[in-house]
Predict the structure.
Amino acid sequence: MRIAHIANFYGPTSGGLRTAMHALGSGYLERGHDVLLVVPGAADADEQTPYGRRITVRAPVVPTSGGYRVITRTREVRGILTGFAPDVLEVSDRTTLRSLGGWASSRGIPSAFFAHERADGILHANLPSWLDSNLPVEGMADWHNRGTHRLFTTVVCTTEYARAEFTRAGLDSVKVPLGVDLDRYHPRNASADVHARYASGAESLVLMASRLSTEKRPELAIEAVRLLTDRGRSVRLVSAGTGNIAAKMRELAEGLPITFLGFVTDRELFAQLLASADVVVAPGPIETFGLAALESLASGTPAVVNAASALPEVVGDAGEAVAGTPEAFADAIEAVLARDAGERRETSRARAETMPWSATVERMLALHEAALDATQKERDPGRN
């Protein structure tokens, strides 16, 4: 099978999307399929990678996005796809690349749209409050999702939370949870030296592995630390991530026991941080999956997550799902830290082991094979 996956907002700091594309690509390759990734970048490039052939299309940076790029040369992308001649197409984008579903349909190529985010969540998070309260946001999202649904053979959502807005609009979708690299992220990566490097003395190490952007609500973690400090709790918050409100968050955190690392490019160090932390916090209210939280569970570290997001589905009983207030996050952090360390490590790892990347790959291949079979039957009605 020849599988093409196209995405925007893919870059060195793009986190979950990049991880998912790489994991799927390498999984497809391991099973003998041909893989093409088409992504935006600063310059055109064509290279072989461990997760497939990757063609980078020079694309402009989206203003105020923190460096993310969006492909505008869609005609060139269609030419790339025509040359590759995919059997199936995967698209991870709601913007300039969404029309490729129509390109695939016109050529009888089954396509899958990955709903990595909710349209209504994006609108609520980015519209000014006065405009958000005066616009029919859910209706706008339903209109957008109906258009997307018409273009693609299958809409793939990673959680029930992600599916909910399609269900609200009366649209079918398929749930395929993402996975985690259970070897890379493992409790054995825990390091007393790493813990001591970032948290001194009796401080508990609280890690936030998140982009610093408005929709991620990083200020909830900062204000929770302020409350914990006022309560006399000895904690150190380490922020691993960057984004367009990084400077604002540093200003908000002034005088608090908070360390900003920026985006951690050293994957070994990141794995050690996840395993060495006492608790991970994921304050974003519109997360449709939350790979960093799952990676923390695989590392043996429980997560405190926003109950409004999809993360309660992901962490299960290996963490705490709470309201999106600093008080709720502070209380939950204390509750997690009060648990037996060995028990919380075992529970977290056990939860992660139910979601390996291999399961995601197999589910996606099954979807593609079914779609190809249906397409063949349409072309040849007499085929059994």
The first strand starts at residue 2 and ends at 7. The two ends are 21 Å apart (CA to CA). The domain at 2-180+356-379 is CATH 3.40.50.2000 (Rossmann fold).
